[in-house]
Amino acid sequence: MRPTFPTAVSVPVLAAAGLIGAALWVAPGPDASAHEDHDRGHKTVTQTRAVDGFTQLHIEGGMDLNVVAGEDFAVTVTTRDDHQDKVETTVEDGVLTIDDDRNRIAWGDRNDIDVEVRVALPMLEALVVDGAVDADLALPDAGDLRIEINGAADLEAEGSCDSLIVEVNGAGDIDLEDLHCKAVDIALNGAGDASVYASERVKARINGVGEIDVYGKPDRVDTRDGLLGSIDVHD
């Protein structure tokens, strides 16, 4: 499992520390609804997972992810009925890990099984992606937020935050222009494009290949785009 994050605000560092405590595994149960028959006679089932008490998300495997902050805890998983028990949801030390283990095995039709996850929670403080994710985040008042992409992600977010740290170590298309933050630290260490909104301060680094667009007309700008990148600060 991925750890909670350090408190230091620096890019591109999101340090690892071991999680402590027993994990709560939520197995498939009766709280599920079946829909039309789909793939090879299987049904698509939406299941509610009884998890709460988390402020951080850790994603392993491949899935579509929808996150809504400012609501009570609620997690639903929609996938084929024969795949529900392969999508594990565990909570340790305030981190909800969603692990679609079977989608990380590249043989047969296992990579072709659709998984959709919706997460509602009062406050999101961090998101770590170690798989392949298509994510939409609605964050009306995120406070201090960290996003780390180590796999591949197509991510969009809207709302507001005080400070935002983004680290992309894999491949990403990161659209955060509608997430209006005061201060943003962003580093592209892999390959990808990103857009952010910073009203006061931005620190942007490209150590790989990519582009960063900065909106919000921040007063303090610190950029370094390297040899294979470009950073545009828009008026």
From TrEMBL:
Residues 1-22 form the signal peptide. The keyword Signal applies. Keywords: Signal. Residues 54-218 form the Putative auto-transporter adhesin head GIN domain. The keyword Signal applies. This is Putative autotransporter adhesin-like protein.
